[in-house]
Design a protein that fits this description.
The chain is of the alpha/beta class. The protein is built from 15 helices and seven strands. The chain has three domains: 123 residues, P-loop containing nucleotide triphosphate hydrolases (Rossmann fold, 3-Layer(aba) Sandwich); 57 residues, Helicase, Ruva Protein, domain 3, CATH 1.10.8.60; 117 residues, Up-down Bundle (Zinc Finger, Delta Prime, domain 3), CATH 1.20.272. The strands form two sheets. The protein has a five-stranded parallel sheet, sandwiched between helices. A two-stranded parallel sheet has the order 6-7. Helix 2 links the parallel strand 2 and strand 3. The longest helix is centred in the last third of the chain and has 23 residues.
Length: 314
């Protein structure tokens, strides 16, 4: 079976993947991770065509699947999408192949997208217009008034992973009493703390280990997969390094934007961050993250501990 999950709501994508994993009794050792910004599609499909060494079924997860979007990459592997079209016509029944991308849309004009829709499973996971219906769905037979739902949303934030976690806490707290009040929300729920990857990067670079671990744990609590945090963190360090080196060569921000093909705001923020550390240190971080990524793919590193070990070693 081949899937394409896309959209800005990563939590919903990850939950869908977890459901598929559970329904097919797939262990962590039977899951491989790839990234189309680094790994060749040829190698991924070769892996997909092979049988699992440990069980009847295996899963392959491919992040940054930009081949289905309007995005154009000036750097990175040259993917032969005709190979995927050929695979879609006769997929390995023992392999679950899941492409993911966090862009809001895919390019319906592309041949590969049309083939995926005809021969695979395509599902959109974008931000909900309102979380109210999602909250009611997660509550099940528990009840919240409209005013309590508003208090709950304001207090715990809009992140769906946190919403699910806090609702489960409320259910355990209330037990047989199915009516959840505003007081229950304030007594049981944790107030949302707004953190992002930039804060994690800055804490790591500044060797503020305690804060970095706190932010990392908060990101995981919000539904971020450790492997995705590692990939995004490596991408961020790579951009900072590239911007730093191009700036040293005399390129303007506009030139760097055109060369790297990223938003001017990201170039400016990367340039500001680049002053905090040397190029050598950035390359050191990239090498460590690459080793962690390889270790996870080979099954020699626990994905849940990998980044914590990295933070402790910087």
């Amino acid at each position: 079976m081949v899937y394409l999950f896309y959209g800005t709501e990563e939590f919903l994508i990850n939950r869908e993947i977890k459901n598929i994993t559970k329904n097919n009794d797939i262990d962590d050792i039977d899951i491989s991770y790839y990234n189309l910004e680094n790994d060749l599609l040829d190698d991924i499909l070769e892996d997909a065509s092979m049988c699992s060494l440990f069980s009847t079924k295996k899963m392959i997860l491919i992040a940054n699947s930009y081949i289905f979007t309007v995005a154009v990459r000036k750097k990175g592997p040259n993917h032969n999408t005709d190979l995927l079209i050929k695979y879609l016509a006769n997929p390995n029944p023992d392999t679950i192949l899941i492409f993911t991308n966090t862009d809001e849309s895919i390019d319906d004009r592309k041949k590969i997208v049309k083939n995926m829709k005809n021969n695979g499973n395509v599902k959109e996971f974008n931000k909900l217009k309102s979380n109210d219906s999602f909250i009611k769905q997660e509550l099940g037979d528990y009840k919240m008034s409209s005013s309590t739902i508003k208090v709950f949303s304001d207090y715990v934030g809009s992140n769906l992973a946190i919403i699910v976690s806090e609702i489960e806490k409320l259910k355990l707290y209330k037990g047989e009493d199915k009516n959840i009040t505003t007081d229950d929300v304030y007594n049981v729920c944790s107030e949302f703390i707004d953190v992002d990857l930039n804060e994690l990067t800055n804490s790591i670079v500044g060797k503020n280990i305690k804060n970095a671990l706190k932010i990392y744990q908060e990101l995981v609590k919000q539904g971020e997969e450790p492997i995705q945090i590692i990939i995004r963190l490596a991408n961020q360090f790579r951009i900072i390094y590239q911007v730093k080196e191009l700036s040293k060569k005399g390129y303007s921000n506009k030139d760097i934007t055109n060369i790297l093909g990223i938003h001017p705001y990201r170039v400016q923020k990367a340039l500001e961050s680049s002053y905090q550390f040397s190029s050598q240190k950035l390359l050191e971080y990239l090498k460590k993250l690459s080793s962690i990524d390889e270790g996870i793919k080979m099954g020699t590193i626990d994905k849940n501990m990998a980044l914590e070990l990295f933070i402790l070693e910087v």
